[in-house]
Please model this.
Amino acid sequence: MSDHNPIIAALDVSGAARALALAEQLAPAVGAFKIGKELFVAAGPDIIRRVRDTGAAVFLDLKFHDIPNTVAKTVASAARLNVQMLTVHASGGTEMLRAAQAAADEAENTPLILGVTVLTSMDETDLAETGIQKNPAQQVQHLATLATAAGLNGLVCSPKEITPLRAILPLETQLITPGIRPAGTDTGDQKRVLTPPKAIEAGASWLVIGRPIYAAENPRAAAEALLDSLAGLAK
Model:
């Protein structure tokens, strides 16, 4: 852990001013910032450039899911913004995933393409409503295998699926895990969660943490406390 800060602070706020204030405050205490749909739609692509100006990496979490040609062109545009990670839905299928990875490989600044498996807000009942007759763990493993076979080197999964994925995936696969909640905090709309230390011990590469940081009375202190809780754990 000494050379890798695994905390990705989610800038899940609606305005550029608030996001930039958080980024400037938190940059020394986190490894990267997540920019998702709410902030991106509110502030536009320029927010990526301004957050990158803090020196921190950017995880662009827009979960692209479209025809292969559209996804490839969108990945190329995102790469020109110099993001370090971005998401596509693994359920988009092999052709789409290969197109996304190929576009990333051709970029001057190659981002890590992350296949989103099953959202951490979903359980078996939610999957069944969409016609998927697998439990979340089974569907995650199915989509993870599909994504890695298509050439992706990273996945987004809940912390509950880290251990079984580590048993079947290449060692170098990066696992990015939302659904991270410190002990004793509200899980909100997340259904498959773990504490930060438990997720790292299970084999997570990165931890996406939102409300426990940005909604804290002192976000910088909250991020530093979370990082301290990971001291001495294996990368």
